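Posted in: Structural Biology > Protein-Ligand Complexes

Title: Requesting predicted complex, adenosine-5'-triphosphate in pocket

I'd be grateful if someone could produce the 3D structure tokens for the following input. Sequence and ligand are given below.
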Amino acid sequence: MYVIRFAARDFRNLEEEEIFPCEEVNVIYGDNAQGKTNLLEGMWLFTGGHSFRGAKDTELPRIDPETGKNLMGTALALDFYSAEREQSAMLQIENGRRSAEINGVKKDTGTALVGKVRAVIFSPEHLLLVKEGPTRRRNYLDTALCQLKPSYASVLTAYRRALMQRNALLKEKRERPSQPADTLSVWNARLARLGAQVVQERQSFTESVAPKISGIYDGIARGRERLEVRYCPSVKGGSTVGEIEELFMQELSRTSASDIRSGFTSVGPHRDDLDIEIDGVSARSYGSQGQQRSAVLAMKLAEAQILTEFSGESPIVLLDDVMSELDRQRQDYLLNHLQGQQVFITCCSPETVELQENGMRFHVDGGAVYPEEF
Ligand SMILES: Nc1ncnc2c1ncn2[C@@H]1O[C@H](COP(=O)(O)OP(=O)(O)OP(=O)(O)O)[C@@H](O)[C@H]1O
Ligand SMILES: [Mg+2]
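-- Reply #1 --
Done. Output follows.
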């Protein structure tokens, strides 16, 4: 899919702006604080998600320079090509409430847009995917799986609920050790059954996405380094759901005494990780800034490939501030070698912009957007 036209009124520092991007690479450049990220954020909102910067909806309408307060509302419009036809969407945010319109049909909530416009976003915040602990990496897998398989979302929710209940029981047993032992084995069995499904789905998703991530990384790094991702479960062994369940049960029984002492379940998919290695060593501990950035980018672009296979259409790729810390060859790859999808890339440096060989450029200056075709 691709965006044909995007328009924003009173959104962030954009008063009344409209762009007609090309179907390939669109570079959005300008100095700091001019409105480049705002432009991407406005398009992203059409996915139905929240601001990727964690902003509240009441902060999105333009601040009135006279009063210094946010205006009451903002309006965004997106014309796009998807499902072999031109479509149009509108999104209004009034007093922090979203309403939408899709192909002329009014909807009461912004969530009505979910699934109509698909996009993948990379923002500097996503670097934490490599830099931080395992929670974000588990979320990366879970978010992708929930989109691909709605049944996964319900298994995951049921697992989390069972985990909370088992943890509550562990604490209760710590306080009152005289309780009967059998209730814990009931929760062990439930946790093992649900957890095994979560682990197996994550494992098989990782197996399908890993070669894509490695392949994209290879392109970014021009074959100079090799990136590998691997699912790293806290309960080792087993490939079928039944095998994993059995091993998980054994681990839960083995660790129950120490779990009661700590009041916390020490094994299971809530403790698993996704190992990311570059040339055989952990990207988190040893990767350079550029390597870590390239790794996250590869993971995001692989997510776009998975979505393409799933829905038959490539999502819009939004890359915010991706260029800094990357050498010329890596920048060249992003500007000139991402084919078959519409890409928006923001950057500040004029030297980087010069590397772009095809597509369109937009110069953003003080909330005004100027197209530059070449
Ligand atoms: N609701 C709002 N109303 C008016 N201006 C806003 C609002 N929200 C943010 N801004 C302004 O928008 C500007 C930041 O825009 P943006 O984050 O898009 O910058 P940028 O061009 O991406 O810069 P950088 O290169 O530093 O990332 C700031 O000047 C900020 O004060
Ligand atoms: Mg920015």
